[in-house]
Amino acid sequence: MFTQILVPLDGSELAGKALPGAQELGRTSNATIHLIQVVSRQPELEAVRGTDSTQIAEYQIDAARQLVEGRITQAKAYLEQTGSTLRSAGVETNPEYTVDEGDAAERIVDYAKAHSIDLVVMSTHGYGGVRRLLLGSVTDRVIRSCHVPVLVVPCS
To answer: What's the longest Cα–Cα distance across the chain?
Structure first.
């Protein structure tokens, strides 16, 4: 059935709702679960914009870099803990957990192509209406761009 399942996570409880379904699919089909978290640099880059002083800009860039590095460290620890929990439940995981930077939807789709993923399991944060229109939806963009099926677990 499925041999390689990708589960994109962002560290939130809502994103984690995809794990039980992925775990069951992984166990029943003897698939390998791949875990990925994409860290966005956008908030840090926005903080640097509009600064006229070179010295202040350098300080802000350094502070932004430290924030991103901190989030990457947290993401790695989270994925390692999640992978350990999955392995304890008898599910095979790819031992190389991926923390990437950039646009989440693009990185998820790129990973799926590069690693012969045959199913993506992810949750939706449940944004609706104007908020969804303004913020966009990583899940929507993955569904529209991915070459493999995407199983979406609702947030509620």
So the answer is: 58
Domain with residue 49: its CATH number is 3.40.50.620
Task: Quickly count: other Cβ atoms within 10 Å of residue 129's Cβ.
Answer: 7
The answer to whether the beta carbons of residues 18 and 123 sit under 8 Å apart is yes
**Domain range holding 16?**
4-153
Per-residue pLDDT of the chain (156 residues; tens, 9 = 90+): 899 999 999 988 888 999 999 999 999 999 999 999 999 866 555 555 655 666 666 777 777 788 888 999 999 999 999 999 999 999 999 999 999 998 999 999 999 999 999 999 998 866 665 555 544 588 889 999 999 999 998 876
Angle 72-77-78 (CA atoms, 0-180°, nearest 5)?
Answer: 95
Q: What is the pTM of this model?
A: 0.84
Domain count, the chain: 1
